[in-house]
Amino acid sequence: MKKLVLLGATGSIGTQTIDIVLKYPNMYEIVALSVGYNIALLEEILSKIKVKYVCTAETNKCLTEKYPDITFYSGDLGLNILASLDNYDLLVNALVGFVGLKPTLTAIDHKKDVALANKETLVVAGKFINKEKRKNGVTIFPIDSEHSAIFQSLQGNKIEDVKRLIITASGGSFRNKTREELNNVTVEDALNHPNWAMGAKITIDSATMMNKGFEVIEAHWLFNIDYEEIDVIMHKQSIIHSMVEYVDNSVIAQLGNADMRLPIQYALCYPNRFEIKGTKSLDFAEIATLNFEKVDFDRFPLLKLAYEVGKKDGNLPAVLNAANEVANKAFRDGKISFLDIENLIISAVNDVEYLPNASLEEVIYYDGWAREYVLNKITKMSA
Q1: Residue closest to 149 by CA, chosen among 167, 161, 162
Q2: Alpha carbon separation from 218 to 39, 142, 230 (Å, rounded)
Q3: What pTM did the predictor assign?
Q4: Which domains does the chain have, with CATH numbers?
Q5: Given CB 3.0 to 4.6 Å as the disulfide criterion, which of 103, 122, 280, 349 pairs with 83?
Q6: Tell me: the pLDDT tens digits for 360-373?
């Protein structure tokens, strides 16, 4: 029985993790979970599984009265308390955004393995995460489909034999649109991803290709591969989730239907594999053709920016991520246009004071700096 702490239980990754646990009740137990503001879904979850600890975004007296056998926490402090519990084996971090960083560090500090879907953790603080990971002897299992594909394609091989990583990109909702056609796109258009069912924030990130830029930075830290050896290629079918090319020019790829339960379950049960109930096999005759295209960095400037920021490191990844979080939400709230997302992020990265050897405290400070910077820009734009 593997005991789990699940952060972000009501999101896309969280609900699918619970689905896996319910299908294998003799293998997994969720001892603690966190949610944001979706209390109705929390109560639905609590009707299906028994947990000892719950963290909500805000204190909720009604919950404490209704569930006297559960210990409730709230806010960022509550997330860290859950991550610091003794009676679990694996932290599943399915939080979205910078908020996922401290619980990851806390879990690693307590010598807990981490199944990581919160890419921001490695984007903004990969250097610090890897240092703590080595010191505490823990493992990070990637949940992102692309990084899980690389992780699977590395099995049985030596990392020093890797020539390059090839991360595939669907191109998101607007992959067939020119930059001119992006001027009048709507939030609804952007949320209509052709392949994947994801949360709103990540779906917008996919449309800007910021998500893919984050994945490049994440891959650098997860697999200790130089940026010059990480490529992105357009693959609209999302059947090949990523590939690894070795020094002998052989390429190993991981293929599968667009179903996030596969990388989630692999992270939970590694090194074993189990049936994913209710799914179908890949039908190659039905697929018939797989297409690939070179990425146009002029069309997707945020992907180009992510490479530049990743190579410089320091405080820039924190600025990149924070600016994106604020701009992404502003677009979803109807306050800015789609192309304003790019302009705000690029402006923040260009205007910040660059600290090449930023400490973790400085990384956290510049996360706040970038948020305030972008919010001020948006205020001036609407004045």
Answers
A1: 167
A2: 31, 10, 11
A3: 0.95
A4: 2-142 (3.40.50.720), 145-256+278-296 (no CATH), 314-383 (1.10.1740.10)
A5: 103
A6: 999 999 999 999 99
